[in-house]
Amino acid sequence: MELGVFVIAAAMVIVGAVGVILRPNPVHAALSLVLTLFGVAVHFVALEAHFLAAVQVIVYAGAIVVLFLFVIMLLGVDRTEDITIEPFKVQRPMALVVGVGVIGLVTAAVSSSRDAIGRGNGLEIPTVTGDNDSNVRQIARSVFGDYVVAFELTSVLLVVAVVGTVMLTRRIKSGKGES
Amino acid sequence: MSLLAAATPTTTWYLVLGAVLFGIGAVGVLVRRNPLVMFMCIELMLNAVNLSFVALAKRLGDIGGQTTVFFVMVVAAAEVVVGLGIIVSIMRRRPGATADDIAQLKG
C-alpha cells in the first residue's frame, strides 16, 4: 500500500519535472509543474505532514502556478518556442553532466549516511513528535513559539516584496511624456 | 538483508527522489532559455529540498523540519512575485526576450 503510493507519487513527480524542462510550450510546462506539485503533496501526506500538503496544494498549485499562467498570458508568450536552437553547443552536454553529477553525489551522500538516518528500518515513528497532537497544532506551536521572530520577519519580507513589485511594474506617468 | 524486506518506502527513498528532482530542476535552469520556464525549474528545486526536509522531519521526529518548509514556501512565494515583476517589466520593453538577450547588465 505505502509502496504503491510512493511509486505512483514518485512517477507523478518525475514525469512532471521532465515535462517542465522538455515541453516547448510554456503553458504545458506550467501544467507539468502542477503535476509535480501534486505529487509532492501526496508525498507530504504519506509523510504525515498534512498541513504542509494542504499549503502545497493551495499556495503552490493554487496561487503560484496561476500567477505563472497569468504572466504567460499577459506577456503573450504562450507560443511553442523552438527549443532545438542552442547558442552554446557545449551547454546541454555540460548541463547533463552537472545534473547527473548532482544526482549521483547526493545519492552517494545519502547512502553513505544511512547509519545516521536509519538503515532500511522504515518510517517507524508514528507521529512526528511522538505525542498525540495533530499536525496543525504541532506546527502552530513551533511557528508561533520557537520561530516567532522568523515568522514576524516573514511578514516584513512579504510587505517588501509586494511594495517592490508594485514599484517595479508601475508605469511612470510624469510630465516627461513617453520615456 | 533482502530487498523485499525493505518494501516499505524509507527515508532514503525520499531523499533520493529529492535528489533526482533537484537534478532535473538544475538541468532545466541550465538548458532552457525562457525566463519563465527557468523560474519554474527553480520551483522544482525548492520542492525537492522541501521533500527532503519533510522526510527527515518525520524520520528524526522533529517538527522543526516542517516549520522550515513552511518558511521556504513563503520565501518562494515572495521570490516568484518579485521575479515575475522583473520579467514583466523586461518583456514589456522588449517582447520575446530570452535569457541570452537580457545580458545587457553585464560590464
Please tell me about this protein's structure.
- The complex is a heterodimer of chains A (179) and B (107).
- Chain A is globular, with a radius of gyration of 22 Å.
- Chain A has 7 helices and no strands.
- Among the domains of chain A are: 79 residues, Four Helix Bundle (Hemerythrin (Met), subunit A) (Up-down Bundle), CATH 1.20.120; 38 residues.
- In chain A, helix 1 runs antiparallel to helix 2.
- Chain A is mainly alpha-helical and 179 residues long.
- Chain B is mainly α.
- Chain B has a single domain, classed as Helix Hairpins, CATH 1.10.287.
- Chain B is 72% helix and 0% strand.
- Chain B has 3 helices and no strands.
- Chain B is elongated and about 50 Å long.
- Chain B starts with 10 loop residues before the first helix and ends in a 14-residue tail after the last helix.
- The interface between A and B is large, with 86 and 76 residues.
| Average pLDDT metric of chain B | 85
- End-to-end CA span of chain B: 59 Å
Largest interface: A-B, 86 and 76 residues
H/E series of chain A: HHHHHHH
Broad shape of chain B: elongated
The CA-CA distance between the termini of chain A, in Å, is: 62 Å
In the CATH hierarchy, what is the architecture of chain B at level 2? Answer: Orthogonal Bundle
Q: Give the overall silhouette of chain A.
A: globular
Name the helicity range of chain B: over 70%
Order of helices and strands of chain B: HHH
The radius of gyration of chain B is 18 Å
